[in-house]
Design a protein that fits this description.
The chain is α+β, with helices and mostly antiparallel strands and 522 residues long. The protein has 2 domains: 156 residues, Creatinase/prolidase N-terminal domain (Creatine Amidinohydrolase, Chain A, domain 1, 3-Layer(aba) Sandwich); 247 residues, Alpha-Beta Complex (Creatine Amidinohydrolase). The protein is 30% helix and 12% strand. The chain contains 14 helices and 17 strands. Strand 10 and strand 11 form a beta hairpin. It is elongated and about 75 Å long.
Length: 522
């Protein structure tokens, strides 16, 4: 695009010194995707037809392609305009001589590749090795293959549109496309099958998920060390997002939540425009998406590095509720609000029997969301949220108390892997206790000066954050001075644009809000 900011030589040198080597997006081995397709095929009595995103779901100039989650789960293919067919065993008395699984890709378009870069095409010599599919055909052949399959099978499995579907209507558009070509074919929904599969992670998935968790914990640790009165919420979020991107993560798993004071009581607060004040608590619900997998972590910090007595009281109650849940966490328990083995009930009962509000009322009324949810390719991953927990599931545990009248919200959210005999706390190295949080906050980041009790001043974070500003600003930065038109202490001379770079593009998730699946962020 025209009018891009150019880096001067000094800025370029800083980038080279501070930066690391770029890397391609990591994916699971082809064998992992093939095993999932085989698992799905064994459950089918008709062909499964899945469509990837086209790359035209969003017209924004900031759009970066990200594959439809279910399609990616079965293929690992992260390019536009693809489709896939999985063919099960053929009914008795009928025959199908074609492949059992076919990947359909757009033909090569040299002019488009001049703009967008090379793509995998059906005729590539290495297409089978790169995709893991023995049969890769041009997308234009899909319609004929489906018509041939309709002569063998009475039903097809697709991801059908759901009531209340939000964002780009991907499922409706492709179901309409399918029905227009096979009007007499019966369509069966695939969401439940794939959701159940996605809830149990295999080792290659856990490797990618753990990377997202590790990078997200690094970002939370940096936020703890930089937190102080005088900063703006957006500055803290920017530091965390920088760490995610610097580590190679492609985007935020969801719109970052950094809420100070009253904003700590707003569950989905993402405006990020308030200045943090002495005496505030700040809720940070921020997680990275790395190689497709999303982390979801929340910590609550005292702005000045020390919890007040009331803040300490509420924090200890939330932590106690989380610890009570962890004590009971094992296969067979449920995240549901009610029913047998409800972990939510354990957390709610603890909160409701410890402490009161200013009117002397119990605090259960201020725990207003669900206890947790599955994480994976989506921050609220697919599947039945009330399903009994099984080994291999990865879920969050996130009790919270939100008292608007006191400008006091506390949420503690950790990620656990369910094991055969209990759980593994995947976020264990991130401080949870008051003592550990305050101790970590006392470890100021290198290059971050000023007292926590005073308004922020000077540089905040490594110089590499600010080097994109150009020559005059760069020289001012290296001298520790403010650039023209504003300063580096979080005091802009003009109102900051109302942006939300971490928001999900399509507004789609593989779960719908429900009483049992609802949690602090949907």
């Amino acid at each position: 695009m025209p009018h891009r900011t150019r880096l001067g030589s000094a800025a370029l040198i800083l980038l080279l010194v501070a930066g690391g080597a770029t890397r391609a997006r990591e994916r699971e081995p082809n064998a992992s995707y093939a095993a999932r397709r085989a698992q799905l095929r064994a459950m089918l009595d008709g062909p499964a037809v899945l469509f990837g995103y086209t790359g035209r779901e969003d017209a924004s100039p900031s759009y970066v392609f990200h594959q439809e989650e279910n399609f990616y789960y079965l293929t690992g293919h992260n390019e536009e305009g693809a489709a896939m067919v999985i063919v099960p065993d053929v009914p008795a008395g009928r025959s199908w001589n074609g492949p059992r699984e076919i990947l359909f890709l757009p033909p090569r378009n040299p002019m488009a590749e001049r703009w967008d870069g090379p793509r995998i095409a059906p005729g590539d010599a290495d297409v089978a090795a790169r995709t893991g599919f023995g049969s890769v055909r041009p997308f234009g052949e899909l319609e004929d293959d489906l018509k041939k399959l309709s002569e063998v099978f009475d039903k097809f499995y697709l991801l059908l549109p759901r009531e209340g579907e939000e964002g780009y209507p991907h499922y409706r558009i492709w179901h309409d496309w399918f029905k227009a070509r096979l009007p007499g074919a019966k369509s069966v929904d695939l969401h439940a099958m794939l959701g159940a599969m996605r809830q149990v992670k295999i080792a290659s998935e856990l490797k990618l998920l753990e990377k997202a968790i590790e990078v997200s914990m690094d970002a939370h640790l940096a936020a703890m060390r930089m937190m102080r009165p005088g900063l703006y919420e957006y500055q803290v979020a920017a530091r965390m997002e920088y760490i995610h991107k610097f580590a190679g993560c492609e985007r935020e798993g969801y719109a970052p939540i950094v809420g100070a004071g009253f904003n700590s009581t707003v569950l989905h607060y993402n405006k990020l425009e308030r200045q943090i004040e002495d005496g505030d608590v700040v809720v940070l619900d921020v997680g990275a998406q790395c190689d497709g997998y999303v982390a979801d972590i929340t910590r609550t910090l005292p702005a000045n590095g020390k919890f007040s007595p009331r803040q300490r009281e509420i924090y200890e109650i939330v932590l106690g509720a989380q610890n009570a849940v962890l004590e009971a966490l094992r296969p067979g328990m449920r995240l549901s609000r009610s029913g047998p083995n409800s972990l939510f009930k354990i957390a709610y009962d603890y909160i409701n029997t410890h402490g009161t509000d200013r009117e002397g009322r119990s605090l259960g009324r201020y725990f207003i969301h669900g206890l947790g949810h599955h994480v994976g390719l989506n921050v609220h991953d697919a599947g039945d949220p009330g399903r009994p927990l099984e080994p291999g599931m990865v879920v969050t545990i996130e009790p919270g108390i939100y008292i608007p009248e006191e400008n006091l919200g506390v949420r503690i959210e950790d990620i656990v892997l369910i094991t055969e005999d209990g759980y593994q706390l995947l976020t264990a190295r991130l401080p949870r206790t008051i003592e550990a949080v305050e101790r970590e906050m006392a470890r100021e980041e290198t290059g971050v000066a000023s007292s926590r009790a005073a308004p922020a001043a000077g540089l905040h974070g490594p110089a590499s954050i600010f080097i994109m500003t150009g020559g005059t600003e760069l020289r001012a930065l290296l001298k520790g001075k403010s650039p023209p038109g504003g300063d580096f202490a979080g005091r802009p001379s003009a109102k900051r644009p109302d942006t939300n770079p971490g928001a999900r593009r399509n507004g789609q998730s593989d779960t719908t809000a429900s009483g049992d699946g609802d949690s602090a962020r949907r």
